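Exercise 7. Given the encoded structure of a 808-residue chain, write a plausible sequence.
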């Protein structure tokens, strides 16, 4: 009780003085425009004391570069945080801190991966690497807008606090920092739990250790004194994870708590030795405590355990768990023992016509067991009977015999959760082939074949080689002939369709130039293309929008084919119709039907405010178009860039979805895709920035932001607001909804909107469901459409996350 009271008081004092500590710490500001390059010499931003560094670190002699936070004054340079799920980057890649965001730029492709999507929040003035090991992005008032402490990977440090629903992931191995097979999760119910994962997915599988603080745990804290504990909402300690009377303060020791790749959560210390560690190379990390007490016996459920299948686990108090293959087995991967073991012999045949049990013997190992995976149990029996039963059974790989109860257990491949339990009297009999017979069998088979059929084999091989060479020569001549013929035809007319099976009109470049009067009237301009107004003389003066891709940058070919293949095969009243294309030489042009009322962006944010009825119809029409793309096409389509600029309005103000240049096609057996970043800041779903698989729910998120803009007739982010609370539309709208002040959202609207406040509230609720941070919580576009049409009930939405990507 005294311990809990003492630390509760300390915790409250820390909370009371936290702002003081934060503002008084000497930052070494990293200004906008700063960058680091991945190179052989360490490239890093240091904390004021130099104890921590943020930057690139080479992994292995031939490996890539990891962007990470690391201890900087010890030889090990131990990593405590890594970016982009431990991804490795090529030499020459850069990390850049600009007004556009905080991102890594790949040296070879030029692709950008954002480290954190909050960096686009207006007001970010500088970054800093702190002496606590926390990397922060702050505004001019030194208020942290983003910090690495809030997005941990596999390690927490002194002064770091984790809130509910925060997860630590073990790294895959000691040199691979991507997400591994285990996670530490402070659950929403307050229970701190260690889980195995459904690897390679990162969803939790089986729990193997817990604090049992259901309902009371509120925060997980690593304090300045080096104690690690769980507190309730009032700051009282409800569970102590690690403490030691011998432990000195952080002034004398570097400290970290890491969920290691073997699934053990270990508390480490490293004596600073007044700098002698750096000068002499002495010192090492030592373990203060660890959970669970024995990782080898903690995992009784099915699965690979800490060492993988067919392996034997042996705990080590001071370091990684030792993994050992049983005799007759070898490691699957010499560089990763936790992948498990495989038999290094030909398995026993189950063919009864040619039994080979006489070729197998047993290796006896005391106290080794694989507690899961028994498929037969006999009792009471003699030891010899147990061994013979396994020997005669082609499925049996191991026989376990207990002397005390005369129990015999038979186990097959794979073997689960092997461990050494030297406190119980049992024997393990590992079945294997005798005398390296895998090699002998291969040699015997080869010698027999060569002896009996040597001459005929040589003749056959010679004939086959002659035939292959003749066909190869004919193929080369044919290829050269048709390549030259094709080249001549291409120069004469490069009007072949981009995608087979799509019936679109093919225009010449002269046709397009004539239709646009030399590309005279520009309608709009994007990242890769410019749109011009045109008139088709061959089609009774029909107005068209001509999208000309800019000079041949690297991705034009991809974007052109994506847009033709995607929209060319669609047909829906809420999609802009593609009439044809030009693919002539360097000219890549798309021809669309002309939308007389322009984009929703100019209509929605212009001088005249559209009526509430018109806005409702536009919202419903857009939803129907997305539903068609997601659920009614032969191939499911993720648009990837839903925003007001890409919703066009025809002469009756019907919404038409346009610009499929970054769309992603999914095959019928796919539900998600892992791909490079696509879309526009502010409308992009969080999963794009977390290196997670992307589904159609990404479009649902974008539609949710768009729906908010349609309802409130303003942009999702407006910098020049007198009231800062109104700058981020999603946050302000939810506050108004929660406080029953919906009239504030439409105070400049017409009477129709004010009289239809009930439907307006309904539309708001739908938008909040669409922008939930967790994709599984978002509705499908089918359900969104039904809700907007009033055919499906809308439940009360939870508060969506306020961590939005904003555009200026």
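Solution.
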């Amino acid at each position: 009780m005294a311990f809990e009271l003492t630390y509760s008081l300390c915790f409250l004092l820390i909370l009371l003085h936290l702002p003081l500590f934060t503002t008084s710490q000497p930052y070494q500001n990293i200004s906008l425009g700063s960058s680091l390059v991945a190179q052989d010499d360490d490239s890093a931003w240091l904390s004021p004391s130099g104890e921590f560094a943020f930057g690139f670190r080479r992994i292995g002699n031939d490996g890539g570069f990891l962007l990470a936070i690391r201890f900087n004054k010890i030889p090990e340079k131990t990593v405590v945080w890594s970016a982009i799920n431990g991804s490795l980057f090529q030499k020459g890649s850069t990390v850049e801190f600009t007004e556009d965001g905080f991102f890594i730029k790949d040296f070879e492709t030029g692709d950008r991966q954002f480290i954190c999507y909050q960096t686009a929040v207006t007001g970010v003035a500088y970054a800093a690497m702190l002496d606590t090991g926390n990397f922060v992005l702050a505004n001019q008032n030194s208020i942290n807008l983003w910090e690495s402490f809030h997005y941990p990977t596999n390690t927490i440090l002194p002064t770091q606090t984790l809130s509910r629903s925060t997860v630590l992931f073990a790294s895959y191995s000691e040199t691979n920092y991507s997400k591994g097979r285990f996670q530490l999760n402070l659950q929403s119910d307050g229970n701190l739990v260690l889980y195995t994962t459904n690897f390679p997915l990162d969803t939790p599988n089986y729990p193997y250790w817990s604090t049992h603080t259901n309902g009371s745990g509120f925060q997980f804290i690593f304090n300045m004194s080096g104690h690690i504990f769980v507190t309730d909402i009032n700051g009282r300690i409800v569970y102590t994870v690690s403490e030691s009377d011998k432990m000195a303060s952080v002034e004398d020791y570097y400290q970290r708590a890491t969920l290691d790749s073997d699934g053990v959560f270990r508390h480490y210390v490293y004596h600073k030795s007044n700098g002698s560690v750096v000068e002499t190379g002495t010192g090492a990390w030592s373990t203060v405590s660890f959970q669970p007490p024995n990782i080898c016996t903690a995992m009784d459920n099915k699965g690979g355990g800490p060492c993988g299948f067919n392996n034997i686990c042996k705990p080590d108090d001071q370091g990684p768990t030792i993994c050992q293959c049983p005799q007759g087995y070898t490691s699957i991967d010499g560089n990763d023992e936790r992948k498990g073991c495989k038999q290094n012999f030909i398995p026993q045949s189950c063919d009864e016509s040619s039994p080979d049990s006489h070729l197998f013997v047993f290796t006896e190992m005391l106290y080794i067991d694989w507690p899961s995976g028994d498929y037969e149990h006999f009792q009471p029996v003699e030891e010899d009977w147990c061994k013979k039963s396994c020997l005669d059974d082609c499925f049996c790989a191991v026989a376990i015999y207990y002397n005390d109860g005369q129990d015999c257990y038979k186990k097959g491949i794979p073997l689960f959760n092997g461990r050494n339990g030297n406190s119980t009297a049992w024997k393990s009999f590992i079945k294997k082939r005798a005398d390296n017979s895998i090699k002998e069998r291969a040699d015997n088979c080869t010698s027999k074949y060569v002896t009996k059929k040597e001459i005929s084999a040589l003749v056959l091989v010679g004939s086959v080689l002659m035939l292959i060479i003749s066909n190869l020569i004919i193929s080369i001549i044919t290829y050269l002939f048709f390549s030259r013929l094709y080249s001549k035809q291409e120069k004469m007319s490069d009007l072949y369709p981009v995608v087979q099976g799509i019936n679109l009109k093919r225009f010449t470049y002269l046709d397009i130039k004539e239709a646009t009067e030399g590309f005279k009237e520009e309608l709009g301009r994007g990242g890769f293309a410019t749109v011009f107004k045109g008139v088709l003389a061959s089609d009774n003066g029909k107005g068209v929008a001509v999208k000309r891709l800019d000079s041949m940058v690297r991705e034009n070919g991809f974007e052109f084919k994506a847009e033709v293949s995607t929209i060319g095969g669609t047909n829906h009243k809420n999609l802009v119709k593609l009439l044809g294309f030009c693919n002539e030489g360097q000219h890549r042009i798309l021809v669309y039907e002309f939308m007389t009322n322009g984009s929703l962006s100019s209509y929605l944010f212009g001088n005249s405010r559209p009526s509430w009825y018109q806005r409702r119809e536009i919202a419903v029409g857009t939803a129907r178009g997305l539903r068609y793309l997601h659920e009614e096409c032969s191939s499911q389509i993720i648009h990837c860039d839903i925003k007001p600029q890409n919703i066009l309005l025809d002469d009756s103000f019907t919404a038409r979805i346009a610009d499929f240049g970054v769309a992603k096609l999914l095959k019928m057996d796919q539900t998600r895709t892992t791909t490079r970043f696509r879309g526009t800041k502010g409308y992009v779903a969080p999963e794009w920035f977390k290196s997670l698989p992307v589904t159609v729910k990404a479009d649902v998120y974008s539609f949710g932001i768009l729906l908010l803009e349609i309802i409130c007739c303003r942009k999702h982010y407006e910098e020049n607001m007198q009231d800062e609370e109104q700058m981020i539309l999603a946050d302000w709208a939810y506050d108004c909804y929660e406080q029953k002040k919906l009239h504030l959202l439409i105070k400049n609207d017409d009477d129709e909107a004010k009289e239809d406040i009930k439907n307006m509230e309904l539309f708001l609720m739908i938008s909040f469901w669409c922008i939930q941070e967790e994709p599984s919580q978002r509705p499908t576009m089918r359900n969104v459409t039904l809700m907007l049409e009033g055919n499906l009930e809308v439940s009360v939405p939870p508060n969506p996350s306020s961590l939005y990507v904003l555009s200026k």
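Remark. The chain has five domains: 25-151, 152-288, 294-450, 505-593, 606-788. Students should compare their own answers with the one above.
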